[in-house]
Amino acid sequence: MNTSTLSKTVLITGASSGIGEATARHLVRQGHRVVLGARRTERLQKLAEQLREEGGQVAFHALDVTRLDDMTDFVAFAETTFGPVDTIVNNAGVMPLSPLNALKVDEWDRMIDVNVRGVLHGIAAVLPGMESRGRGHVINVSSIGGHAVSPTAAVYCATKYAVRAISDGLRQETDKIRVTVVSPGVVESELADAISDTTARDAMKAFRRIALQPEAIARAIAYAIDQPDDVDVSELIVRPTSSPY
Question: How far is the C-alpha of 183 from the C-alpha of 147, rounded, in Å?
């Protein structure tokens, strides 16, 4: 366990797999106090037990980011367990891609609910406390899809553009709270498993032939967290060296 960095209380949404899980492992091993949130609590429990066996300070709580009351309960649990929240990593996201003419409106709504409202709920739950303390760090996970639009990804990209807009608005509205947007390129994860449209699923298989491991994004998040309070790493794009995307 590396405790060379200043230990912070960090909340991670979507922590049951992929980037969220990798970030939890990395930050706990750095010595941070980490609270895991996701709907799949059996995965969170297993991850928490593994990290505690290594000597880490970690807790978990059931979380549906589309529900504001869930998010406020999540933050209250973290504060009761480890004290005031220093950082929240709004990582939870879904990516059921499809052409617009497939009219998968339910999937569009789900992406908006998780990818946009989930981030807003995370901000709403931590912002009053951070403002009252005069410090804090909001890290929002966007995507390269928040920088360029691809066929079958119009709604997904729209949600990730929204994450960048929300983040920059928050950054401009405060001179005390740090705000970071992390935009991953192609990363191995379960996101593509939710794609029900055949066209989009086949395109994603080709798109993901070159992919980063989620640990690469975890290291980028840790870099932003580890900066002193007067240094705001506002935006990071992390992509495979050999990928054009």
Answer: 9
Question: DSSP letter string over 150-207?
Answer: -TT-HHHHHHHHHHHHHHHHHHHH-SSEEEEEEEE-SB-SSGGGG---HHHHHHHHHH
89: helix, strand or coil: strand
Assign domain 9-238 one CATH number from 3.90.70.10, 1.10.10.10, 3.90.1300.10, 3.40.50.720.
Answer: 3.40.50.720
Q: What does each C-alpha distance from 144 to 40, 48, 158 come to in angstroms? A: 26, 30, 11
pTM exceeds 0.90: yes
Interacting residues of 215 by C-beta distance below 8 A, sequence separation 6+: 22, 26
- Here the contacts of 201-204 (C-beta below 8 Å, separation 24 or greater) are 201/97, 203/97, 203/151, 203/152, 204/97
Instruction: Note whether 147 and 237 are within 8 A (CB).
Output: yes
> Both tokens of residue 134?
């005069």
Catalytic residue among 156, 161, 223, 245: 156
pLDDT at 1 over 70: no
Residues in the chain, overall count: 245
Indicate whether 204 pLDDT > 80: no
Say how far apart CA 87 and CA 136 lie, in whole Å.
6
Average pLDDT over residues 117-145: 98
Residue 156 a catalytic site member: yes
List the one residue out of 91, 84, 35, 22 whose CA is nearest residue 61: 35
Question: What integer pLDDT is reported at residue 3 of this predicted model?
Answer: 43
